[in-house]
Automatic annotation (TrEMBL):
UniProt protein name: Beta-adrenergic-receptor kinase
Transmembrane helix listed as a keyword: no
Binding residues for ATP: 321
Top enzyme class: transferase
PANTHER family assigned to the protein according to its UniProt record, in alphabetical order: G PROTEIN-COUPLED RECEPTOR KINASE (PTHR24355:SF18), G PROTEIN-COUPLED RECEPTOR KINASE/RIBOSOMAL PROTEIN S6 KINASE (PTHR24355)
Database matches in PROSITE patterns: AGC_KINASE_CTER (PS51285), PROTEIN_KINASE_ATP (PS00107), PROTEIN_KINASE_DOM (PS50011), PROTEIN_KINASE_ST (PS00108), RGS (PS50132)
Ranges where the AGC-kinase C-terminal domain occurs: 565-632
InterPro entries on file: AGC-kinase_C, Kinase-like_dom_sf, Prot_kinase_dom, Protein_kinase_ATP_BS, RGS, RGS_sf, RGS_subdomain_2, Ser/Thr_kinase_AS
Lineage: Eukaryota, Sar, Stramenopiles, Ochrophyta, Bacillariophyta
Domain Protein kinase, chain residue ranges per copy: 292-564
C-alpha cells in the first residue's frame, strides 16, 4: 500500500513539473489586506523610508514598474516614453560590453532620440514599436539620472512632449545631443579603424584587459573592453570616449519626470496601483507553512526532510527544507542552522541554489529554495560512470564560479561533492546545502564536510596537537577531488588505491586510512582517462601546500589554466551557455522508501524546547524580494496573455497534502 502511495506521489510530482511550462496554476487566492491592515502597513513603510510610495520608490520595485508600465499602455495607449525608460534599464542591466552594447545603444537612439520618420504612403509619423515587459527583474536603478534639485530647470530646457519634432520621447537640447554624439564618436572610432591590430594596440596602450580575472569582475570595474564581432577591442574607461551604463540616465530622468507630471496622479487612483499595494503588503506579511503544499520527498538531511512543494498563490514549485527544532537542539547545531540561513540570504548567484523564503513554526524551521528537478551530479555520475569532457568543462566552470561567489562574501563552503551539485530541468548546475558554510575568520579550524573531500589543512595539527587554521583554499582542494571524479568516475581519495595506501602505512581503520592518504599520498592520473592538461590541473588543485594550490589567489587562476582554453567564459558568467546535457523529465532522485523518515526515539521525545531555544530563531523569517517579484510578474504576464484574471479552482483540491 505504501509503495502504491509513493508511485501516485511520483506521478503527481512529474505531472506538476511538466505543467510548469503551461503557466502559473495557483491553488490559493492572494490574501487582500483590510483598509486597517493596509494603513498600518503604509505607516510602517513610511517610517522605514521617507521616500516610500514616491514615483522613484515605486519604480525601483519590479512589480511597481511592471504595473505602471501596464497602466500607461493599457489605459492611455501611451508607450513611447515608458518603452524608452525600459530600454535604458535593459541597457544598464545587460551592460555595455562588446558589439552588442554599442548595437543596443544605437537601437535606443534610432527608436527614441532621432527625428521620427514618416510613412511614404500616408505621410504620417511612424512611432517606435510598442513593447511589453516580460522580465521579472526589470526595475529602475537607485539614484539614476539628474538630482531632484537640478531637475526642474533642466526639464524646462530639455523636454517638450509631445510637441518635440526631434524625437519620440520629447527630449531635446544639450542632454539629447550629448547622448547621440557620444555613441556616434564610438561608432566613428570603430569605423575608422584601418585594421584590427592597430586598434588593439591603441586599446592595450590605454589599459590592457585580457585576463580572466578582469572578465570575471567586468561588472564592477570602472574599465571595460568593448569587443566587436571581428575580435577588435576598444577600451572603455571612466574618463575616455567609451560607453557607460549611465549613458542614457540624464535623458531617462527627464522622460520619467514627464511621465510623472502627466500620469502619476491618475495612476495613484487606478485599480493597478491598488493591486500594487496589495502585492507589496502580501510580500511583507509573515510567511506561514500553510502558504505551501508539500509534494514528494526528495532527500533527507541531518535534521529533517527535503520535499518538493508548491506556493499556493502563484503555483510556483520550490524545494522545501524542513529542519526540526528538537533535532537541531539534540545535536547542539543551532548555530549551523543559522549560518546556513544567513549564507543563503547573503549569496545571490545564478550558480548557487537561492533562498526564496525562510520562516518557522513551533516545531520546525523552513527554507524554501530553488527546485532543481534534474537530480544531483552524484546520481548522474553513477549512471554514466564518468562525464564526457564537454560536461566536465561546463559543470566545473559553474561550480568554480559558485565557490567564488561564496568566497566573495567571505564564506567558505566546506561541503563540495557531486551530491551537492544539482541540475535544473534545463541542465544548469548549482551548488546546494550551505549547512556547513561559514564566515572565514582567522581562527577557523576543524574538519567539516564529507571524508575524502577534506583538504589536508583541515586534518593537520600543530606541535601541541591542536587543529590548525585554514581559509577558502579548502574549497579548491574539494573542487580538485570533484573534477578528478567527473573525469575518471572515481574520487582519488575514496578509492581502493587510497585506502590501501593508508592501511599499508599502518592506519588501523578505513577512515584513518583515507585521512592519511589525503595528507600524504600524491594521486596518479592515468593518461587513458586524463589528458595532460586535465592531469596537470588536478595536480595543481590537489597540492598539499594550500599557498601553492591553484585558486589560492582566486578562481581567475583556475580559469586561466590551459584545460579551460576553449571555454567561453563570458557566456558562462552571463548564464548564456547552453548546457551540454538535459536530464529526463522524471524523478531524478532516490525512491521515497530509500529516503525514509526520522524515528522519534526516546532522546527525541525527552528533548523539550524552551523560550531560550526560540530566541535562536527570532531573526529567521525572510522573504526574497526578487523571488516574490518573479512570482507576481509571471502571474501578471499570464493574466495579460490570456486576458482573464487568474483564479484558483473553486472546488478543486490541491494534488498535494497541506502541511
Amino acid at each position: 500500500m505504501e509503495e502504491l502511495q509513493d508511485a501516485i506521489e511520483d506521478a503527481q510530482y512529474v505531472n506538476e513539473i511538466a505543467q510548469q511550462d503551461d503557466g502559473p496554476r495557483p491553488v490559493l487566492p492572494w490574501k487582500k489586506p483590510t483598509e486597517e491592515e493596509l494603513e498600518i502597513w503604509k505607516q510602517l513603510k513610511k517610517k522605514e523610508s521617507k521616500d516610500a510610495f514616491t514615483t522613484e520608490w515605486t519604480m525601483q520595485e519590479e512589480i511597481g514598474l511592471f504595473l505602471f508600465s501596464s497602466y500607461l499602455k493599457e489605459t492611455h495607449d501611451d508607450y513611447a516614453r515608458i518603452n524608452f525608460c525600459e530600454e535604458v534599464y535593459r541597457f544598464r542591466k545587460y551592460g555595455v560590453q562588446g558589439r552588442s552594447g554599442l548595437k543596443r545603444a544605437k537601437s535606443i537612439i534610432k527608436q527614441f532620440l532621432v527625428a521620427l520618420e514618416r510613412d511614404p504612403v500616408t505621410d504620417e509619423v511612424v512611432m517606435p514599436r510598442r513593447s511589453l515587459v516580460f522580465e521579472h527583474d526589470l526595475k529602475r536603478p537607485t539614484s539614476i539620472g539628474i538630482p531632484e534639485d537640478q531637475r526642474q530647470k533642466l526639464y524646462a530646457e530639455n523636454m517638450d512632449f509631445p510637441a518635440c519634432s526631434e524625437c519620440a520621447v520629447g527630449l531635446k537640447g544639450v542632454i539629447r545631443r550629448e547622448i547621440v554624439e557620444k555613441v556616434q564618436n564610438i561608432e566613428d572610432l570603430y569605423r575608422s579603424s584601418k585594421n584590427k591590430s592597430s586598434l588593439q594596440e591603441s586599446a592595450t596602450a590605454i589599459s590592457p584587459i585580457h585576463d580572466s580575472k578582469k572578465l570575471l569582475n567586468a561588472n564592477i570595474t570602472s574599465t571595460r573592453n568593448i569587443g566587436f564581432d571581428d575580435g577588435t577591442d576598444i577600451t572603455e574607461t571612466s574618463t575616455g570616449n567609451g560607453l557607460h551604463r549611465d549613458l542614457f540616465d540624464n535623458g531617462e530622468s527627464l522622460v520619467m519626470e514627464s511621465l510623472k507630471c502627466d500620469y502619476w496622479r491618475s495612476f495613484l487612483e487606478s485599480p493597478k496601483y491598488k493591486r500594487l499595494l496589495g502585492f507589496l503588503w502580501f510580500r511583507d506579511r509573515p510567511v506561514e507553512p500553510d502558504d505551501f503544499f508539500e509534494m514528494r520527498r526528495l532527500g533527507r538531511g541531518g535534521f529533517g526532510l527535503v520535499t518538493a512543494c508548491k506556493k499556493g498563490t502563484s503555483g510556483k514549485l520550490y524545494a522545501m527544507k524542513v529542519m526540526n527544532k528538537r533535532r537541531i537542539k539534540m545535536k547542539k547545531s543551532e548555530q549551523l542552522a543559522i549560518n546556513e540561513r544567513h549564507a543563503l540570504a547573503s549569496v545571490e548567484s545564478k550558480f548557487v541554489v537561492n533562498l526564496k523564503y525562510s520562516f518557522h513554526s513551533k516545531d520546525d524551521v523552513f527554507l524554501i529554495l530553488d527546485l532543481m528537478t534534474g537530480g544531483d551530479l552524484g546520481f548522474h555520475l553513477h549512471q554514466k560512470g564518468r562525464f564526457p569532457k564537454r560536461e566536465v568543462l561546463y559543470y566545473s566552470a559553474r561550480i568554480m564560479l559558485a565557490l567564488q561567489a561564496l568566497h566573495d562574501k567571505q564564506y567558505v563552503y566546506r561541503d563540495l561533492k557531486p551530491e551537492n551539485c544539482l541540475l535544473a530541468e534545463d541542465g544548469r548546475v548549482k551548488i546546494t546545502d550551505l549547512g556547513l558554510a561559514t564566515k572565514i575568520t582567522p581562527k577557523l579550524h576543524g574538519a567539516a564536510g564529507t571524508r575524502g573531500y577534506w583538504a589536508p589543512e583541515m586534518l593537520r595539527r600543530d606541535s601541541r596537537g591542536k587543529r590548525m587554521n585554514y581559509t577558502h583554499t579548502v574549497d579548491w582542494f574539494s573542487f580538485g577531488c570533484c573534477l578528478a571524479e567527473f573525469i575518471s568516475g572515481s574520487n582519488p581519495f575514496r578509492s581502493e588505491v587510497a585506502l590501501n595506501y593508508g592501511l599499508e602505512k599502518g592506519q588501523q581503520t578505513k577512515e584513518k586510512a583515507i585521512d592519511f592518504a589525503i595528507m600524504e599520498m600524491d594521486p596518479e592520473f592515468p593518461p587513458e582517462k586524463f589528458e595532460p592538461d586535465a592531469a596537470d590541473l588536478c595536480q595543481q588543485l590537489l597540492r598539499k601546500d594550500e599557498k601553492k594550490r591553484l585558486g589560492y589567489n582566486g578562481c581567475s587562476e583556475i580559469m586561466s589554466h590551459p584545460y579551460f582554453k576553449n571555454i567561453n567564459w563570458e557566456a558562462i558568467i552571463s548564464d548564456k551557455e547552453i548546457p551540454p546535457f538535459i536530464p529526463a523529465k522524471d524523478v531524478n532522485a532516490a525512491t521515497q522508501s530509500e529516503i525514509g523518515n526520522f524515528v522519534e526515539d526516546k532522546k527525541y521525545q525527552e528533548t523539550i524546547l524552551t523560550e531560550e531555544d526560540e530566541e535562536h530563531y527570532k531573526d529567521w523569517d525572510w522573504t526574497n524580494p526578487r523571488a516574490f517579484a518573479a512570482e507576481v510578474i509571471e502571474f501578471l504576464i499570464y493574466e495579460r496573455t490570456t486576458g482573464e484574471p487568474l483564479l484558483p479552482p473553486k472546488h478543486e483540491a490541491c494534488c498535494c497534502g497541506i502541511m
